[in-house]
Amino acid sequence: MSESWFIEELERRGVSRRDFLGFCGVMTSVLALPRSAGAQIAEAIETKEKPTLVWLEFQDCAGNTESFLRASRPTVADIVLDTISVDYHETIMAAAGHQAEAALAGVVEGKPGAYIAVVEGSIPTGENGAYCTIGGRSAQDIAREVCGGAAATIAIGTCAAFGGLPAAAPNPTGALSVADAVPGVKNLINLPACPANVENLVGVIVYYLTFNRFPKADRYKRPLFAYGKSIHDNCERRAHFDAGQYVEKWGDEGHRTGYCLYKMGCKGPVSYQNCPNIRWNEGTNWPIGCGHPCIGCAEPDFWDKMTPFYSHLPSFPGFGLHANVDRVGVWATAGVAAAFAAHGFVQLGKRWMYAKADESAAAKGAKAATEKKGEES
Amino acid sequence: MKITPRPTPSKEICLANVYVWEWPVRITHWLNAMAIWVLSVTGLYMGHPFLVAPGEASEHFIMGWAKLIHFYAAIVFTLSVLTRIVWMFTGNKYSSWDKFIPFRRIRSKGLWPTIKYYLFAMRLPPGFVGHNPLAGATYALLFVAFLVQICTGLAMYAASASVDSPVRFMAALLPLFGGLATAHLVHHVIMWFIWMFFVHHVYSAILMSQVEPTATLESIFSGHKFVPREDLIFSGYRFIDRETHKGG
Ligand code: HEM
Ligand code: HEM
Ligand code: SF4
Ligand code: SF4
C-alpha cells in the first residue's frame, strides 16, 4: 500500500510521525488554511502518488536550485521534496548529454499532461534564441514543448516569473518570463524572489498534492499565502517607522538600535512576500532582521523599478541614475517662478511704455484741440 | 456684426455686476487650495522624514500622524474635486465643462489672442467674462492631474488597505502606473506639476486683476465680476484687441 512507503521513509530517516503531523500543521498555517486542512494534507502526502517533476534551467544562476537543495539537517520538508521524483534536473542529475535528453523526452512523451514543469531562469528570445540553447534547441522551443505538455508549471525565482536580471534594461538577450515566452501556458504559478524561499515552494507543492490545483494567486500569478501582504505590514521594525525613527547612516546609533530602514531605501512598503514571517534558512533571520533594507526582489522588473536600491524613490527618468524627483521638482518650479518673474518685469516695462505713449498722444490731442479752438475764434 | 471702437478701459466704462462663481465653485476652489498645502507638507514628510524621534518608539507617532492627516486631507480633496466636476454639468454657464476645453469656435478663436497677450504682442487680453480660454485649458490640464493624483493615491492606499476597505479595488489601477514603486514616483511628479501650476496661477490672477477691469482676483472670494457692458453684449465672448479693435 502506498501509505507505507512514506511512513517507512520517515522512520528510515529518524523522523517521528509526530514531527510529520507538526509539519502538516505548520503547512496549514503557512498556506493560511483552516486547521482541519492539516489532516487532509497529511493524508494527501501519505497516500497520493508521487508527482513527476522536470526542472528546466535557462538564463539563471542556479540560486533557486541551491534553495531547493539547501544542505542542512533533514526535515520533513526535505522528505516531501524527496518524494517528488525529479526526473530531469541538469544540475543535480547524474545523467548527461544524450542520456539526459532522453530522460526529459521520456517524461514529456511518456507522461503527457501528468507531470509538473518547474522553470528557473528567464528565456532569451533575441537572435532566434541563440543566447541559450540546450542540445541544439533554443530555450523557448524547449519551454514551449515541456510547459505546453505539463499539468502545471511553476516559474521559480524572479527571472522565470518576471524576466529578472537578464531582462533588466536594456535586456540585451530579449529575455522573457515564462508567461510571456510560452503564451497561453496553463496552470502557471509564479514564485518570484531572488531566490525563491524553499518554504513557499514546499507550500505550493503540498497544496497541489492535497487539492490538485494551485492556491489562489494575485494579479501577477503569485500565491496569496506567500505574497499577499507587504513586507512593511509584517515588519518587526514597523513601530520605528510609525514613530519616526530611522537609520540615517550605516552603523549609526539608529542602525545599531534597530530603527526602520526606510531612509536607507527600504522597499518593504512596495514589496510583497512573507519574509518577515517565515524568514530565511529555516527561520534563522531575514535581510531587514540583520539590518539591510529590502530590495523588493519579488516584484516585477525590480532591477529597473526598485533601483537605486539605497534610495526611497526610483530615479527621475532622463536626469541620471540618482536624480531625485523632488530635487528636479524644486528646480523646475523655481524655473517656472523665474520665468513668470521675468514676464512680470517685461510687463511693468510695457506698461510704462504704454503710459508714456498715452501721455504724448493725449498731449498731442490737447494741442490739436487748442489750435483748432484758436482757428475758430 | 459691427464693432464700435472703444477706448482702453478706464473708470469711465460702464461696468455690469455679474455673479460668475457660484458658492460651490468658490468653496471647492479654497478647499482644494488648502488640501493641496496639507497634502504636500505631509507627503513631503512621508518621502523625506527629516524629524527623528528620540527615545522609545511607543512614545511617538510622527510618521503615523503624517499618514493619517494625509489620508483625511485626501478624502476632503477627492470629494471636493468630484463636486467641482459634477458642478461642471449642473452649475451656471461660467462653470460649465465647455469653458475648460476650447472646442467651441468662439473659444478656440480666443485662445491665440490670449497667448499673444502673454507674449506682449497685444496690449490687453481679450475680454471673457468667466475664464479666458487659455486659463480654462490650464484648468483642464490641472483637473487631469488631480484625477491622476487621486488615482495613484487611492491605488497606493488600496495596495496595503485592509480586506474590508471600500477602495481596495483601486489596486487594479497599479499596472497602469507601472507598479507600486513607480506609482509613488508619479505621485511626486504630479505634486510638482501642481506647484508649477500654482506659481503660474497666482501670478496670472494678480496680472489679470491689474489689466482687466473686472476685479478678477476678488471674484474667487465674492463670486462677482464687474464686466464692461460691451463684453456682455457679445454674450461674454469677446476677443477683439481693445487697443486696435482688430480680431474676429
Ligand atoms: C494634491 C494632492 C496630493 C499631493 C500633493 C500628495 C503628495 C504625496 C506625497 C509627496 C507622498 C509621498 C510619496 C512617497 O514618497 O512615497 C504621498 C504619499 C501618498 N499619498 Fe498623496 N498626495 C496627494 C493626494 C493624495 C490622494 C487624493 C490620495 C488618496 C488616497 C493620496 C494617498 C497617498 C498615499 C496612499 C501615499 C503613500 C503613503 C505611503 O507610502 O504609505 N494622496 N502623497
Ligand atoms: C494650489 C492652489 C490653487 C489651485 C489648485 C487653484 C485652482 C483654480 C481653479 C481650478 C480655478 C478655476 C475655478 C473653477 O472653475 O473651479 C481657479 C480660479 C481662480 N483662482 Fe485659484 N487655485 C489655487 C490657489 C489660488 C490662490 C492662492 C489664489 C489667489 C491669489 C487664486 C485665485 C484664483 C482666481 C482669482 C480665480 C478666478 C480666475 C478666473 O477668472 O479665471 N487661486 N483656481
Ligand atoms: S524597515 Fe522597511 S519594511 Fe520595515 S518598517 Fe521600515 S520601511 Fe517598512
Ligand atoms: S526582504 Fe525583500 S529583498 Fe529580501 S528576500 Fe524578502 S522580498 Fe526579497
- The percent range for helix content of chain A is 40-55%
Quantity of strands of chain A, as a count = 9
**What CATH architecture of the domain at 105-244 in chain B would you give?**
Up-down Bundle
Distinct small molecules: protoporphyrin IX containing FE, iron/sulfur cluster
Q: How many domains is the backbone of chain A divided into?
A: 3
Shape call of chain A: elongated
Could you give a short account of the major beta sheet of chain B? 2 strands, antiparallel
| Text of the CATH class of the largest domain in chain A | Alpha Beta
How many helices of chain A does DSSP assign? 17
| Name of the CATH homologous superfamily of the largest domain in chain A | NADH:ubiquinone oxidoreductase-like, 20kDa subunit
Strand order of the largest sheet of chain B: 1-2
Report how far apart the termini of chain B are.
Answer: 10 Å
User: What is the count of DSSP helices of chain B, taking H or I runs of 4+ residues?
Assistant: 7
Counting DSSP E segments of at least 2 residues, the number of strands of chain B comes to 2
* Strand line-up across the major sheet of chain A: 2-1-3-7-9
Mean pLDDT of chain B: 86
Query: H/E element string of chain A?
Result: HHHEHHEHEEEEHEHEHEHHHHHHHH
| Amino- and carboxy-terminal Cα gap of chain A | 137 Å
Largest interface: A-B, 46 and 40 residues
**Portion in beta strands of chain B:** under 5%
CATH class of the domain at 105-244 in chain B: Mainly Alpha
What does this protein structure show overall?
- The complex is a heterodimer of chains A (377) and B (248).
- With 377 residues, chain A is α/β, with parallel strands linked by helices.
- Chain A folds into three domains: 3-227, Rossmann fold (3-Layer(aba) Sandwich), CATH 3.40.50; 230-314, Irregular (Cytochrome-c3 Hydrogenase, Chain A, domain 2); 330-377.
- The model of chain A has no long low-confidence stretch (mean pLDDT 89).
- In chain A, the strands form three sheets. In chain A, strands 2-1-3-7-9 form a five-stranded parallel sheet, with helices on both faces. In chain A, strands 4-8 form a two-stranded antiparallel ribbon.
- Helices cover 47% and strands 9% of the residues of chain A.
- In chain A, a hairpin with a 2-residue loop joins strand 5 (133-134) and strand 6.
- The N and C termini of chain A lie far apart (137 Å).
- In chain A, 40% of the residues are buried.
- In chain A, helix 2 packs across helix 3 and helix 3 packs across helix 10.
- Chain B has 248 residues and is mainly alpha-helical.
- Chain B has a domain at 105-244: Fumarate Reductase Cytochrome B subunit, CATH 1.20.950.
- Chain B has seven helices and two strands, in the order E-H-H-H-H-H-H-E-H.
- Chain B has a two-stranded antiparallel sheet.
- In chain B, helix 1 (23-47) runs antiparallel to helix 2 (62-90) and helix 4 (133-159) runs antiparallel to helix 5.
- Mean pLDDT of chain B is 86; it is low at 1-11 and 235-248.
- Chains A and B meet through helix 13 and helix 17 of A and helix 2 and helix 5 of B.
- The site of one protoporphyrin IX containing FE has 19 residues of chain B, from helix 1, helix 4, helix 5 and helix 6.
